[in-house]
Amino acid sequence: MRHPKRHVLSLLALSVSLFSCASFAATKLTLVEVITSPARTEMLQKMLTDYKTQHPDVEIEVVSLPWGQAFEKLGTMIQSGQYPDVVEMPDTWQGLYASNGMLADLEPRLKGWTGTPDLTDKTLTMARSSGGTATMIPYGFYLRAMFWNKKLFQQAGLTDAPKTMDEFMADAKKISALGNGISGYCMRGGVGGTNAWMMFMAAMNGSPEFFDKDGNSTLTKPGAVKGAQFLVDMYQKGYAPKDSVNWGFNEIVSGFYSGKCAMLDQDPDALIAIKNSMNPDDFSVAPMPLGPNGKAYPTIGYTGWSMFKQGKHQDQSWDLISFLSNKENNLTWSKFVGTLPIYKGAEQDAYYHAPQFAGWFAELNSPDYIPLTMPTHLKGWGYFNSVIVKDSSQETLLGQNDTESMVKDWAKYLTKEQKAWLAAQK
Question: Secretion signal: which residues (predicted)?
Fold first, then answer.
């Protein structure tokens, strides 16, 4: 006969075991990355492995979207109800998702987070750039500067990087004259090319302002049109590779380190591949060329981590974001992906004292360089940046449209967006 007491104890043990298994059932988080490369994904997975070691009750699925189609693919996911728990959020998309009320308010989380007091003012400003409420934690800043190939410059009889827009055009012409498939400028004609258009338009126009006080776009100002024509001329005169009309980030970077083109305007993230493929003595990074008014307007942008309101695991999602954003992990990530970090004093790290960073810090420390902040507060900026600029600029570069018509279309779209935004603030 089975002993009743043992039977009860067995049932209790089984119940405890089942309860333990239930409580240990893993929370599954989905993290979407949109600025992808094999190396970046590998580094992210390494950090997530460290997180999962500390949180064995959490599983994390990483969905990697190729940057060229990421805007559309993430939109498709959202439309079908597949909300990721954590998403890598570019500044160019923040306005869209924040203004639609889809991103979680992180202000209550920031109040209780130990890392908040050490964040730079710029970091907190960017976190709150859409509507004044923090909807992301930036993981770093991208600031444009000019990479230049010393060997190709020397072959063309040049000794230094161009300091003005006129010198930039003249140097590109001399280098392109070398032949052998070498061009002066690595143009980004595909997705992500908006920065160059806006920088050169601002430089030639002598102003970083996108709108007047009434919300009208400034892109149709004569100087701005001249800046757009500057890029069109660079391409149509053969100072940029013919196939660069379709180039994205990977193509412009490989075009530079392979010696196909001698100048590249890019952020510190381009250093990842360039320093692994070139002798450090063969290239350098200079500030962006100055416009007619003696100023340059290098674009400054940022990307970070956001969470959707519709995510099922809000507390766990924030816990993951705060882990990725802590001082140690952020510095590791910033060094690897090529951003300027988000914490006060981080620039004192020995890594940022390398000569290649001189161009970026010159821009940060000289009044001649005024960082250009994109109007990411606009609901339609993400579509403008990812689709409109790419499609219409490619048509213009290929001679299927004229520069003035292209710029007028851009201005019309942005004016409508800005006036809608202004009306919503009343």
Answer: 1-25
Residues in the chain: 426
Both tokens of residue 26?
């893993």
Short-list 404, 407, 376, CA closest to 389: 407
Q: How many helices (H) and strands (E) does the chain have?
A: 18, 10
Q: How far is Cα 273 from Cα 152, in angstroms, rounded to an integer?
A: 19
Q: Look up the pTM and report it.
A: 0.74
Give the integer Cα–Cα distance in Å for 388 and 309: 28
What mean pLDDT is predicted for residues 167-190? Answer: 97
C-alpha Rg value of the chain to the nearest Å: 24
Write the DSSP string, 40-62: HHHHHHHHHHHHHHH-TTEEEEE
Q: Measured between alpha carbons, how far is 285 from 266 in angstroms, rounded to an integer? A: 9
Per-residue pLDDT of 388-404, as tens digits, reads 999 999 999 999 999 99
CATH 3.40.190.10 in the chain, residue ranges: 27-143+301-365, 149-297+378-425
Rounded to 5 degrees, what are φ and ψ at 29?
A: -105, 145
What span, in angstroms and rounded, lies between the C-alpha atoms of 191 and 387?
Answer: 8
Q: Distance from CA of residue 132 to its chain's centroid?
A: 20
Evaluate whether the domain defined by 149-297+378-425 bears CATH number 3.40.190.10. yes
Share above pLDDT 70 across residues of the chain, in percent, rounded to a whole number: 94
pLDDT given at position 195:
95
CA 221 – CA 226 distance, rounded (Å): 9
Angle, CA of 88, 93 and 99, to the nearest 5°: 115
- Write the pLDDT tens digit of every residue in 291-307: 999 999 999 888 999 99
Token readout for 262 is 């001698």
CB-based contact 374:129 (threshold 8 Å): no
Rounded CA-CA distance 357/354 in Å is 6
pLDDT tens digits for range 65-98: 988 788 899 999 999 999 999 999 998 888 889 8
**306-321 pLDDT tens trace:** 999 998 999 999 999 9
DSSP string, 114-156: TTGGGB-HHHHHHHTTTTTS---EEEEEEE-EEEEEHHHHHHT
The highest-level CATH class for domain 27-143+301-365 is alpha beta
For tokens 């400028």, name the residue.
185
Residue 170's pLDDT band (boundaries 50, 70, 90)? very high
Measured distance CA(77)–CA(148) in Å, rounded: 40
Identify the residue whose tokens are 């306005």.
95
